[in-house]
Amino acid sequence: MARYGMVIDITKCSGCYDCFLACKDEHCGHDYPGYSAAQPMTGQFWMNIIEKERGQYPKVKLTYIPVPCRHCENAPCVSSARDGAVYRRPDGIIIIDPEKAKGHRQVVSSCPYGVIYWNEQKSLPQKCSLCAHLLDEGWKEPRCVEVCPTGALAFGDLDDPDSEVSRLIASGATESLHPEYGLKESVTYIGLPKTFVAGTVVFGDTDECAGGVAVTLTGNGKKMTIKTNFFGDFEFENLDKNEDYIIEIEAKGYKPQEMSAKTKTDVYLGIITL
Ligand code: SF4
Ligand code: SF4
Fold first, then answer.
1. Is the pLDDT of residue 56 over 90?
2. I need a surface site. Which of 61, 67, 104, 201 has the fewest CB within 10 A?
3. What number does CATH give the domain 195-273?
């Protein structure tokens, strides 16, 4: 018996919404008795895509974070339901029984990720079932994984050391979106956005972009030197939050510059004139 899991690589997600649409195609208007009731045409997002805007103008980045149910081992939705109306299958999939869960509105607020939706018409809590009805028919993956054009969604057996998900987890690169919830999630991420420090350097005497200038970032046990690009831009990515950094800029024939940055959020230092 497999134990299913998914790894979502944020660095590969282009925000195309194909997974979102495949989920709609599979579940809107389709009942799967014992697995899930039909998803309404509006108001529910079993494969939700969070669009996270980072930085300040003109240095703005957009990151897409697909957010389905994480099919947790410590699932508060299971304990919040009565009479086994929400349960964990032996393969790890958490199912909201579309008959037994009728009227169990309290289940919606039990999930700290907010991935359970209330169907007013059916008086039913609903969420992603990992397309369990298809997996039980022999499908190798849910519809969202099947359609992803960039390979951002990996799916497989967490107990098989040779599966892609197991290899990704073994690499140590995976993490939870909210480890503080302590849910032991079966859906984890690679490349969740941290913070960046960026800036643009110009030569004061010529007013031209300062390309190829050395920029050094020091702090939080790190020291990294990079060169500005053709446009004088530099960027240090994947920095820890709430840390203090010193940025030094040096170019032959110009007075060195030094500035500080605290990564409470992403930092754009603006135009720095040498
Ligand atoms: S993510 Fe929420 S709905 Fe899904 S299993 Fe965990 S607690 Fe339950
Ligand atoms: S289908 Fe893949 S690339 Fe497109 S939004 Fe979903 S995870 Fe991202």
1. no
2. 61
3. 2.60.40.10
